[in-house]
Amino acid sequence: MLEIALKHQFAGFALDLALNAPGGITALFGHSGAGKSTVVNAVSGLLRPDHGRIAVDGEVLLDTQAGIALPPHRRRIGYVFQEARLFPHLDMRANLTYGARFAPPGPGVIGFDRAVEMLGLGALLDRRPGALSGGEAARVALGRALLSKPRMLLMDEPLAALDGARKAEILPYFETLRDEVKLPILYVSHAPAEVARLASSVALLEDGHLRAFGPARDVLADPGAAGGFGGRAAGALISGRVAAQEHDGLARIETAGGAIYLEAPGMAMGTDLRLQIHGADVTLALVQPEQVSALNILRVTVLEVGAPDGPSVFVKLALGEERLLARLTTRSVAALGLRAGLECHAMIKAVSLAS
Amino acid sequence: MLEIALKHQFAGFALDLALNAPGGITALFGHSGAGKSTVVNAVSGLLRPDHGRIAVDGEVLLDTQAGIALPPHRRRIGYVFQEARLFPHLDMRANLTYGARFAPPGPGVIGFDRAVEMLGLGALLDRRPGALSGGEAARVALGRALLSKPRMLLMDEPLAALDGARKAEILPYFETLRDEVKLPILYVSHAPAEVARLASSVALLEDGHLRAFGPARDVLADPGAAGGFGGRAAGALISGRVAAQEHDGLARIETAGGAIYLEAPGMAMGTDLRLQIHGADVTLALVQPEQVSALNILRVTVLEVGAPDGPSVFVKLALGEERLLARLTTRSVAALGLRAGLECHAMIKAVSLAS
Amino acid sequence: GEVTVFAAASMKTALDEVARGWEAQTGNLAHISYAGSGALARQITAGAPVDIFISANPGWMESVTKTGKVKAREDLLANHLVLIAHDPEAAPVTLSEGLDLKALLKGGKLAMALVDAVPAGQYGKAALEHFGLWDGIKGDVAQADNVRATLMMVALGAAPYGITYDSDAVAEPRVHVVATFPDDSHPPIRYPAARLSDSDAARSFYAALRSPEAARVFTAQGFQVLK
Amino acid sequence: MSWLSPPEWQAVVLSLKVAGLATACALPPGIGVAYLLARGRFVGHGLLNGLVHLPLILPPVVTGYLLLLGFAPNGPLGAALARIGIALAFNWKGAALAAGVMAFPLMVRAIRLAIEAVDPRLEAAASTLGASRVWVFATVTLPLIVPGIIAGAITAFAKAMGEFGATITFVSNIPGQTQTLPLAIYSQLQVPGGEGSAAKLVVISITLALGALLVSEALAKRIAARIAGRDA
Amino acid sequence: MSWLSPPEWQAVVLSLKVAGLATACALPPGIGVAYLLARGRFVGHGLLNGLVHLPLILPPVVTGYLLLLGFAPNGPLGAALARIGIALAFNWKGAALAAGVMAFPLMVRAIRLAIEAVDPRLEAAASTLGASRVWVFATVTLPLIVPGIIAGAITAFAKAMGEFGATITFVSNIPGQTQTLPLAIYSQLQVPGGEGSAAKLVVISITLALGALLVSEALAKRIAARIAGRDA
Ligand SMILES: Nc1ncnc2c1ncn2[C@@H]1O[C@H](COP(=O)(O)OP(=O)(O)OP(=O)(O)O)[C@@H](O)[C@H]1O
Ligand SMILES: Nc1ncnc2c1ncn2[C@@H]1O[C@H](COP(=O)(O)OP(=O)(O)OP(=O)(O)O)[C@@H](O)[C@H]1O
Ligand code: MOO
Ligand SMILES: [Mg+2]
Ligand SMILES: [Mg+2]
Known about the structure:
The complex is a heteropentamer, with two copies of chain A, one copy of chain C and two copies of chain D.
Chain A: E1 2-10, E2 13-21, E3 25-30, H1 36-44, E4 51-56, E5 59-63, E6 68-69, E7 77-80, H2 92-97, H3 112-119, H4 134-146, E8 152-156, H5 164-181, E9 185-188, H6 192-198, E10 201-206, E11 209-215, H7 216-220, H8 223-226, E12 235-245, E13 250-255, E14 258-263, E15 272-278, E16 283-285, E17 296-305, E18 312-319, E19 322-329, H9 330-336, E20 343-348
Parallel strand pairs in A: 3-9, 3-10, 7-8, 8-9
Antiparallel strand pairs in A: 1-2, 1-4, 4-5, 5-6, 10-11, 12-13, 12-15, 13-14, 16-20, 17-18, 17-20, 18-19
Chain C: E1 2-8, H1 12-26, E2 29-35, H2 37-45, E3 52-54, H3 58-65, E4 72-78, E5 81-85, H4 101-105, E6 110-113, H5 119-130, H6 134-137, E7 141-144, H7 147-156, E8 161-165, H8 166-171, E9 176-180, E10 190-195, H9 200-208, H10 212-220, E11 224-225
Parallel strand pairs in C: 1-2, 1-3, 6-7, 6-8
Antiparallel strand pairs in C: 3-10, 4-10, 4-11, 5-8, 5-9
Chain D: H1 6-39, H2 45-57, H3 60-71, H4 76-83, H5 92-116, H6 120-128, H7 133-144, H8 146-162, H9 165-171, H10 181-190, H11 195-228
Helix pairs in contact in D: 1-5, 1-8, 2-5, 3-9, 5-8, 5-9, 6-7, 8-11, 10-11
């Protein structure tokens, strides 16, 4: 449980928001300058907001009315900054272990060796920050925060400097933090795909205010809010469970709306997972498509046709108990005569679910 | 014309590559630590490589054999660094105009007002770097380089700190720089979408060496190199021309393979453009699909089925003179019996081409 | 007219008064630079534009004379060397070979000027040697860079006893003289004066130094005027 | 000010003049030498560094003596300067020279530290924007080290206000011409019972130097804040 | 060394001892005061700053005089220290006190500048990793300012090697106990014709201080390079 209520004024910028995040990964999403870093700084204790209250799992870190303001080092909140901020006088090993000496004894969220392996830092351990590439520095900064045994993580665009392959390697670990270690994370990102994949809750900031806040499933599937993420990124989240890893490398995921096939290398049977299905990846057909390469063809019912947003609209679909979003052109909506209540078929390529 | 031949040794890292880029935007793509920033630093003159030769439009900037090494300030190369590196003692206006006093008289690639407008800096002009958000700083850095009237630009992940909306605003301007101003740009990016959209040539770096280099069209559509970009990102580039802006907001693009519809707001009739069609967005059907929402249904011929890469493969298609790539599961390839020479239909959603 | 006078620092009180009288009488102006005799002598040798030089040390006057600039010179003043004490109750001391100076100091230091460099120190060392006391006391001598600093140490009580000129002791109420060294116990203490220019003002000032008014002032300050 | 006798008043004015001139004249070469020492790679680096520090290492009297040897009317430099109409010996300009020389190492140290703290990546950025080395220095390095320059200048000014040994040895102690506050204080201390008037001069000396210190401090802080403007 | 007379040799050893002790003892409070002045916000900030600078502003004789007032055997502090068995007057420890006091402002200046150059964002990062203010200082600030500390220490050492006025006034000139090199040089210069033997001591003095300077310089450069390791 993360409670945040903040009011803060910079010359020319006012932050005013309140949200109660239920744990897991809370994504802060919003344009450049919307106030994301300001919120994160306030939670870390580095910024003393004009007014506000911040509590993690019931422990009050800040309450300006009660005159409480824990200093940053007593908050035990790992912070991955927008810039790496590595200690220039320490080699990478010492940077990574810096926080350990201040942490309570006992195992933390991750061990040193595991962190080094996960972040691919093996070859860098004896280097100094000056001799690192941008992405290398970002990875060390991430490791440093994790190894300080935090009870909560703040991440300010931790993956912005990383390439796709490295991102793909690290993202599953964030999921582990979220699902197994149950480490609450406040996650700032500009990448809708990351947010969709990781976030339990999503806060959409606009000019210092909350434009939308709620469970990721609702915010991401809300055609109204979707514009805030850029058209392509919006899409529904559906839950499923790995039912089989088949011989040709595809996994069968059982969902409330039927089986879905996708690439999920290395996922054990029985694993629960969340899929985001981007609206742009969903094609609708009125008749059952035959002889097409799309592997997933699902029976759906149109629930609602959203308001047009440029030449396209979001169409909300029922897939059993689950909800899907499809992004279609108004032209197709008209051509197919889509309207609430119509039954049709949603085609989704397995490879478009893979990333 | 940009000629680069470099050999440089860091402890534990060796760079060795040579490439001749034909102008336009040359993307440097590669994993974190692959050597992208090192190349860019050598071109800027900030790094003196052990051996090498660098020439822009025939003018030799560096030739270690001939003992030539122009200092950075005489190279007239705008550099947008991976970190913003704004001057802390100057306000944003002074940061932006810093390079102008050293530049030759006459109009540069962009005027002050236009740059401010394009980058959304109006409200920031009197601020100092300390009072900027990460994305704001990145935008100022970009403007500063453009306003120094460079004859070439180096950009080291210039958009990494920007949100999607801001990216979407700035990308078209890079296209303008490429197509109208004809400013050669060396562009480092981790984002395949950016690379696909912008790059005339693509250099794929791996561990200090060139893994692939050539026109963007070839490298991006090369199933062999595609893995380097992450599966989802690979896809063919096809050229077209805006033939009509239709009443419902869709543009009709004429290509060598027929008409393609997509959202292209604000693009004038007759504009030439390049589309990347991601392999993951292409669905194949053996029979003409009916009553589907996908607007673009193109007749294609299978040219080649690539080697499987996990559970999926790239299938190379002929669309008239153009080439398309489709990424399919091996299961679908088998189910449809895809093989070279087979004619089929490629479905591509208009909205998936929009981003 | 104006004169520039270089004079040993320890003459300040007396010479300032003499100069004021001379200025009042003649309407001339005297610029007097007080510093250590050595520093002044070097400056003169280096070409300082000076009309009158009064040294606390015949040795430095010799080095100035060698430059050939000296137009006239004579020994102006003499002084006595005294043993002073901080404690107002301190009993008078009889200087003799048998004196136990160390016991007198009770673990404290005997303040003197630099015994190898500053005249007051050199005279003091000679006088103590004369009585055969030097070797027994030299480890307990605190040497200051000039007589005034020596005086100050005793005045503050940092050192219980010290050796200074009579003229210094006269002016400092916080010390009192417990013994006067006999004149034959050390080389004669002389303050030679020299005139280095022939200007009227210089001649006038040089003459004023020997005037009865000046003699009164010098005497009042504890100097002895040499005839 | 009625509680200051004319000669005391003279000493105050003279000290300010001397320390002001010394600081002002030492500043440009101080910045230059600091830059050379901070960023230069050349033979003789160590030598230059040593030379600059000499006045700190040597007893002030020795420095004054060396100045006297060089700049006195019949010294080699003094004679040369005399020919172009500049006389330094035994006047307030000479006092400023002595004070400047003594204060120089302090000034250079402060400025050099400031230069070494400038992020070379900012200078690199400026060079890619077309600024030559000189321009980079003038438009990036210099503004960034202003707090260091102020610190150096004020330390030098304070030192110049207090300089005694080299001054009295080089230019003597002539009231109205070379008798700065420290020399006046010294003279008072030579007079039995002069502590009182010495104390008055000490208080004035402290007041002036501390005033300058506080003003410069406030200035430097303001500029540093403007430069940094950094968030938490 | 046969070309040094035993008393000269004594003066050399004593000077090194005095300057070494002065620097070593001044260092911890120097770092503390520099930190307070650089980062502290408290009433009396200006006062502390002024106090630290006093020895720079005052003629050294006055500083020596004030030390004598305070620390002489019958002075208030001197008496108190004597009761716990510490005697400072007229011995080499007193000389070190005088040299330390005179060198203190130089040391504080250098260290303070270094602290002000530390990026507060690194300190903020350390605090989010669990380091309290003291730990942040010990593990981040302190290592980053090592070059500044070395610079401050060596400036202080050089100054301590050259200190004359305060030393002779406070502890006077006792061969073998308080006669440091500058005092020995001064003595020689007071004797007509003593320049020759003074020159020898001057050369020794320069050699020692410059040696220390160069060594420290090299050390600081090495550490700074390790810390920076910055690319172009
Ligand atoms: N000054 C240096 N000294 C030693 N090694 C260095 C130095 N600078 C870079 N390297 C190493 O050279 C390699 C290439 O670095 P470079 O910065 O060019 O990578 P990059 O491709 O830009 O990576 P990123 O995408 O993470 O910014 C890295 O392994 C890095 O650690
Ligand atoms: N110290 C400061 N003083 C004044 N204004 C500030 C300060 N820090 C931030 N701001 C302003 O507050 C607003 C929010 O900044 P913040 O850093 O929180 O944005 P952000 O959402 O993190 O943006 P980005 O994605 O670009 O990092 C911006 O308009 C910024 O200019
Ligand atoms: O007047 Mo002196 O030269 O201090 O003995
Ligand atoms: Mg931010
Ligand atoms: Mg890089």
